[in-house]
Amino acid sequence: MADHTVRAFTEQLEALASSVAQMGGLAEAQLADAIDAIARRDTARAEAVVAGDRKVDELQQQIEEQALRVLALRQPMAVDLRETLAAIKIAGELERIGDLAKNIAKRAIVLNREQPIRLAQSLARMGSQSLAQLKAVLDAYSDRDPDSAELVWKQDGEIDEMYNSLFRELLTYMMEDPRTIGLCTHFLFIAKNVERAGDHCTNIAEVVYHMVTGGHLALERPKGDTTASARIEKKD
Amino acid sequence: MADHTVRAFTEQLEALASSVAQMGGLAEAQLADAIDAIARRDTARAEAVVAGDRKVDELQQQIEEQALRVLALRQPMAVDLRETLAAIKIAGELERIGDLAKNIAKRAIVLNREQPIRLAQSLARMGSQSLAQLKAVLDAYSDRDPDSAELVWKQDGEIDEMYNSLFRELLTYMMEDPRTIGLCTHFLFIAKNVERAGDHCTNIAEVVYHMVTGGHLALERPKGDTTASARIEKKD
Asked: Which of B109, B192, B232 lies closest to A229 in CB terms?
């Protein structure tokens, strides 16, 4: 951070970054708990995630107001301006991750009423990878480290591959036993939500990279969900 | 817009708003074409949507840079500051809508290789509603009309209801004929993407409302996708 003549300004920027870090920690906990609620079939935990989303939303609004005050009162330039805007954008991404965690938790509550299915394992692995990405990108933000941010950005493909494989697995599962279609549909959306959480980490990585360097990682995000173009396999 | 002593500033803000309107028009066209590509089984159009997404992404980046220049050079206050930030946020939402259109188009290409199914009708209705919402919220932005924005925000429930009903329909379809599972899964994600496009319109409505009034529509977005909590129906 540049040396400011106005000490209060530095403090405001630090307070903003600290709010973002706090919100990041909360979003991470929400996502971890939502995934855990499936793996452990823990409905109480899932319900806590659903209830906890409001706190994530409140933090976002607080960060936006904080950032607007900095913009209005301090009129930051260059890297300080990018930091202020990065706070707004990252808070927006974290809010989405919070929404995804809430949606996963809602579906966990339904799944926990049903017989367990073996796919929960693949999902847990995908969840861990997505959480690792979130943790890494939040660290990159705190450390102002563009290289770590770029690494997160590049690694999104791994989650996408896991998703593609789980998607295939689920389709096979449904075709083999149509009674599981309702259940598998929930799993499908949970998996998609975990994959989307990974995309939001990629977005955050782009913001961090731009915040520190002023440059752009790329116009085109690395998107590896190939299921949209998947040929339809029929079992006749 | 307030009377500015610096005419150039007013012009910059107007140019920014005009870029957002242009991007809005493009995102609307992309979504309309993607939905149309399914209804008319028009693969060439779907391919054009996939290729056209890059233009949407480029416009977003251009708007961000334009807004950053306004912030850095003009240091806007109050409503002007909110307008500048609104441009960044709306461009972000429009970029997501562009991504969704691209994803729908990719799935359309796959669907067009298969036998048509009757669900395309319900989907087309849902698509029209979503497009109407997008058009209305872009108008609310151009007119700086918080009441119209609030109306869009309130009407999101209609798309959600359509989605919930289509979701049920698709599940029944799959259970009745497991050979359609692959096909129906594509439809499921297309429907979800249309529903998400509606959510982004809701987000834009919140931004427009805040831009004009300085107030917030609500902390909690009106979310009507209840399928996350849907009980699983089994056919034994």
From this structure: B109
Question: For chain A, what is the domain count?
Answer: 1
Between A37 and A236, the more confident residue is A37
Mean pLDDT of chain B: 89
Q: What is the ipTM of this complex?
A: 0.75
CB-CB neighbors (< 8 A) of A232 in chain B: 110, 113-114, 182-183, 186
Task: Give yes or no for residue B234 having a pLDDT over 50.
Answer: no
Domain that residue A204 falls in? 7-229
Assign residue A218 the CATH number of its domain.
1.20.58.220
Residue A30 within any structural domain of the chain: yes
How far does B37 lie from chain A, in Å, by closest CA? Answer: 15
Determine the average pLDDT of the residues in B96-119. 91
- Binned at pLDDT 50, 70 and 90, residue B207 comes out as very high
Contact yes or no for A219 and B61 at CB 8 A: yes
pLDDT at A190 over 60: yes
Q: What is the 3-state secondary structure (H, E, C) of chain A?
A: CCCCCCHHHHHHHHHHHHHHHHHHHHHHHHHHHHHHHHHCCCHHHHHHHHHHHHHHHHHHHHHHHHHHHHHHHHCCCHHHHHHHHHHHHHHHHHHHHHHHHHHHHHHHHHHCCCCCCCCHHHHHHHHHHHHHHHHHHHHHHHCCCHHHHHHHHHHHHHHHHHHHHHHHHHHHHHHHCHHHHHHHHHHHHHHHHHHHHHHHHHHHHHHHHHHHHCCCCCCCCCCCCCHHHCCCCCCC
Residue A22 belongs to a domain? yes
Calculate how close chain A gets to B231, using CA atoms only, in Å. Answer: 6
Whether residue A151 lies inside any domain: the answer is yes
